[in-house]
Specification:
This protein is mostly beta strands and about 325 residues long. Helices cover about 15% and strands about 35% of the residues. The two termini are about 30 Å apart.
Length: about 325
């Protein structure tokens, strides 16, 4: 059996009424005709939704198979795990998404069938003028107040909202009421869960001409009413040049690496590259700008904007070299 290596996967596209075409026009995805491409699931192991290795000796193997058969090599210090714990995707919101909320781990475990909780984080990639993010309840809104406004079809009156900028990161722990506004393109890291409860869908109808299902009681039951307005995070410096910490929670760590050919990192990076991994855990690498080369990647092609790679724990530190004067990359891993 071949050793594990840096893994690329074929994306899985999701088409919903709020999607658009920026997965193709901005991120270079091979989408087909139509203007409703909403999500590109880059790394997923959730039931029948399975990422498949795109290149190398393991081409065609699903992520779930790697978890079951090569878990110790994949997870390192976090082995054993029953499934890959994170799901990474890109979302193109040409229309505003529903007002929704997700359960936490304890609540998800009581579902039939059980599912994980869903804590997530967004990194904003593209913003149309006037685009909004709805994140968290305004101060003073309890269950009765939210239920009252939902019944009136005016739940947005309860929600904190702001105009985001490219590069903003929004952290949404499970139980946070939220909605992604029209005109936004985002990268999302989340727990591997697909449980979503809709509170409000802006009084619109689905492709069948009927309103989409709402889950008001379930949504109210899992809402964290102690959580107030959610603002973009403040990136924190790390001990590595060009690397900032966006999120560190009990479900994942999200770092952003920024290479600028004019800064003091230039000579060091060009001569040796950036080493990622070697800490006995997997790393998800996502290029948001520019392009990079990954040592040991069998596809022998640069990792470009909108492309994702999974470095198993067993590969040790891998060298990443920027192929452009500017590059931005996300590095995602378990605590």
């Amino acid at each position: 059996m071949p050793p594990l290596y840096p893994l690329r996967f074929d994306p899985i596209f999701r088409r919903y009424l709020w999607g658009g075409r920026r997965l193709g026009t901005v991120l270079g995805k091979a989408i087909g005709p139509g203007d409703d491409y909403a999500e590109s699931w880059e790394i997923v192991d959730h039931g029948e939704d399975q990422s498949r290795v795109a290149a190398g000796p393991l081409a065609g193997v699903t992520l779930g198979e790697l978890v079951r058969e090569r878990g110790a090599e994949l997870f390192g210090r976090h082995h054993p795990l029953e499934q890959f714990p994170l799901l990474f995707k890109f979302l193109d919101a040409s229309k505003t998404l529903s007002v929704q909320v997700h359960p936490n781990d304890d609540q998800g475990a009581r579902l039939d069938p059980p599912d994980g909780g869903k804590t997530e984080a967004w990194v904003i990639l593209d913003v149309a003028p006037g685009s909004l993010i709805y994140s968290g309840l305004k101060r003073g809104f309890d269950r009765a107040a939210l239920e009252r406004e939902v019944s009136r079809g005016t739940s947005e009156l309860c929600l904190h909202r702001f105009e985001p900028h490219v590069g903003d990161c929004v952290f949404l722990p499970a139980g946070t009421v939220h909605a992604l506004g029209a005109g936004l393109l985002v990268a999302e890291i989340q727990q591997s869960s697909d449980t979503t409860y809709r509170l409000h869908d802006w009084n619109r109808v689905g492709p069948d001409g009927k309103p989409r299902d709402l889950h008001i009681e379930k949504a109210l039951d899992v809402t964290d009413f102690d959580r107030g307005p959610v603002h973009p995070v403040s990136p924190q410096p790390t001990d590595r040049a060009g690397v900032s910490r966006l999120v560190a929670c009990d479900q994942f760590v999200l770092d952003r690496w920024e290479y600028d050919g004019s800064n003091r990192q230039t000579d060091e990076f060009n001569s040796a590259g950036l080493a990622v991994g070697g800490d006995d855990r997997f790393h998800i690498l996502v290029v948001l700008a520019g392009e990079v080369s990954i040592l040991g990647d069998p596809s022998s092609r640069p990792l470009q904007r909108g492309q994702t790679l999974l470095a198993p724990a067993s590969v040790g530190p891998i060298q990443i070299t920027a192929n452009s004067h500017f590059a931005t990359m996300l590095d995602i891993y378990l605590p």
